[in-house]
């Protein structure tokens, strides 16, 4: 589920529609269903009221997907950042060493791409 907020209904509608279109381009993800609510006025949070914004809209996009494997699901979640997530199946998964290594490399590659885009960085700690 993706819950977004904006001060402009049109911007909000375009944002989630565009996001859904991008999601549907992901290889190895099958969409079972998707639903998009109409933007509704909500009470603005403190971050909005501090800026003098008194009118805010919220819209929810809910998708049900089937991912080929855990790596694909992880890529989907990191790339699109859903507000909430329910994994319905399987009850458990088991990784072999190759799958574990590929999954960790995927996380590392995504983190490096975000850092290179200026969206974050690497945190080093002393153990």
Structure commentary:
The protein has 127 residues and is an alpha+beta fold. The chain folds into 2 domains: 2-89; 94-127. Helix content is 39%, strand content 22%.
Please describe the structure with a list of short key phrases separated by commas or semicolons:
127 residues; disordered C terminus; 2 domains
Radius of gyration: 18 Å
List the helices and strands in order.
EHEEHEHH
**Structure classification:** alpha+beta
The outline comes out as globular
Q: State the end-to-end distance.
A: 36 Å
Strand content: 15-25%
Q: How much helicity do the residues have?
A: 25-40%
- Into how many domains do the coordinates divide? 2
The poorly predicted ranges are 120-127
Largest sheet: 4 strands, antiparallel
Break the fold down into its secondary structure elements and pairings:
Layout: E1 2-6, H1 9-23, E2 29-36, E3 40-42, H2 46-49, E4 56-67, H3 70-80, H4 97-116
Antiparallel strand pairs: 1-4, 2-4, 3-4
Q: Summarize this, please?
A:
By secondary structure, the chain is of the alpha+beta class.
